[in-house]
Structures are given as C-alpha cells and as structure tokens.
Write a structure and sequence with these properties.
By secondary structure, this protein is α/β, with parallel strands linked by helices. The strands form two sheets. Strands 1-13-2-3-4-5-6 form a seven-stranded mixed sheet, with helices on one face. Strands 7-8-9-10-11-12 form a six-stranded mixed sheet, covered by helices on one side. About 8% of the residues have low confidence.
Length: 297
C-alpha cells in the first residue's frame, strides 16, 4: 500500500519597502553559505491502533517520503506510541519499548537517508514526557525536544520538559514546538526564530469531537482558532511553519505548511491519508520580525 501525496508550491507577494533592505541582506548572507532549497514531508497518516502499529506505520512512511524526494519527514504528536485521547490507550508503555522503537526508526532513517522529526514519548524520570525525537539522515540521533508547556489536561499523566533546542539539517536550522505550545504560546516559536531557525515544525494531535464543526477549507472563519495560529506563527516571526496532525474522519484540523509572509503554501484535504509534500527555500525565512523584538533576549 502506498500513501497518497499532496504537493504544494507557494507564492510570496511583494513585501513593504521598509522591510526589504534588511531582509535582502539577511537572505544574501544566508544563501552564500548554505544549501537552502529542500522538500519536507508531513505524515498526515492514520491514527495508530496500538503502540506496535504506530512503529509499523512510521517504518512504512519513511521510504515513501524518501522516494518522493523529501529530506525530512515530521510525524504528529506522540505518534509513537499513540496519543492518549479520551478512552484511547489508557495504559502506558515502558521505557524499553520506546527505546527499541526509537532505535528501529533511527536505523530506518539511515537506510533511507532521510531526517525524521518523530512525535513520541520518553522517560527521564518516573513519568513520561511528550517529546519529539530528531534523527539525522545518517540515522544518528540529533536529540529530543520535550514538550515544555503541557496542556492542563496532560499534567496528571506527563512530566513537563524544561529546555528548548535548535536542530540543523543540511545547514538549515529548525525548531520544534509541540501542539499546545504552538497554539497557545507564541513565545515558543519566537524563541526558535530568534536563534536562527528558518523552519519550525509543529506536531500536534486532534481528532473529531461529536457535534463539532467539520471544515472543508483551511482556516474557515466558522472553525476554531487553531489553524489561524499557523498563519500567525509564520508571519510574526518570518519563518516557515509546518504543522502536522493525524488523518481522521471529521477532524476539525489538518496538516499545513505556511510561508514566512504568512501565506498558506499547502494543506492536506481533511481526513485524507497521505504525505503532504512542500518545497521550501529556507533563504526566504529571514527571521526578521522575530529579531526586531526589543523586549526579550
């Protein structure tokens, strides 16, 4: 079985002349030294039926994304072992299961020469942390970005992280903010942008709620605020923002990529399983507006 692929391209309208000089200087400096153009994939795939199923679905998606030319693929929040939504997955998984899963997926990343941002869990102490495991195309582990700002509903089950990280892929810096962080705490995205991130990944988890609005167009005004934040996080920081959810019937939110000017580059049709592919030029993400902030370091 192969995954369907949605590919998006973006148009960037002219910017106000007041921003252009500084932005062009930043872009020229960046493009002289870095390879800036590459393809990303967002794994808008089925909700896993079990922890083991989640690993198998990741292993299926990696070669599909690599064959499609993606240099990195991002999975939704806690995709391995599966996010505990409602009555789903009431139990926990062991640290041994997670470590084995991470090792297996890292080996597959190396075999397919593709970077991975894996929504997952990990144990640092007694309670698990929601986290994103970042794997290099070589298969080496780059590190974890733990979820620092938990949703109030997660505090009984999970331990919050305490630090933010910057990662790099082929000379392009990127950050990761997880679900609630990107929706409710714009400071998390700005933190990454002010430290040179050109791209911020936003793995999250959402599925249909009975009686909720079911959109057919991205950021429908009748829908909740959530998808509108994708546009804001990109535009207010002059970075690419790539947000990924699972595919589920009736879900009110989907996966999307937004350009540094806040324009929507592409989104996955609601409920449709597949890889969302997007070609980005990181040189266009200057971080200018994030750097201009005067009131924080």
């Amino acid at each position: 079985m192969s995954l369907s692929r949605q590919r998006g391209t973006g148009y960037s309208p002219p910017r106000p002349s007041g921003d252009r000089g500084s932005e062009l200087n930043l872009r020229r400096s960046f493009s002289k030294h870095r390879m800036t153009k590459f393809r990303i994939a967002l794994a808008n795939i089925e909700i896993p039926s079990s922890p083991q199923d989640s690993v198998e679905r990741v292993l299926h998606a990696l070669p599909e994304a690599a064959r499609a030319g993606a240099r990195v693929i991002c999975f939704p929040e806690a995709y391995v072992p599966g996010y505990p939504w409602g009555e789903t997955r009431l139990g926990t998984v062991t640290s041994g299961f997670l470590e084995d899963a991470h090792t297996t997926i890292a080996q597959a990343a190396g075999q397919n020469n593709i970077g991975v941002v894996l929504g997952t869990e990990r144990y640092v102490a007694d309670k698990p942390r929601l986290s994103a495991l970042v794997i290099k195309p070589s298969g080496d582990i780059a590190g974890f970005q733990d979820k620092v700002q938990l949703d109030p509903s997660e505090e009984a089950r999970y331990e919050a992280g305490s630090e933010r990280q910057i990662f790099e892929l082929e000379g392009v810096r990127f950050g990761v903010v997880i679900c609630h962080e990107g929706f409710r705490y714009p400071e998390t995205v700005r933190w990454a942008a002010r430290r040179g991130a050109r791209l911020v990944f936003h793995p999250f988890y959402d599925e249909a709620v009975a009686g909720a609005f079911q959109p057919t167009e991205f950021a429908d005004p009748r829908n909740t605020f959530h998808e509108k934040t994708f546009l804001c996080r990109a535009a207010e920081n002059s970075v690419f923002f790539a947000s990924v959810n699972c595919a589920s019937p009736g879900s009110a939110t989907t996966s999307a990529v937004v350009g540094p000017d806040g324009s929507l580059l592409c989104y996955q049709p609601y409920g449709q399983v597949g890889l969302l592919l997007c070609d980005i030029d990181a040189a266009k993400a200057t971080g200018l507006l994030a750097r201009r902030l005067r009131t924080q370091s």
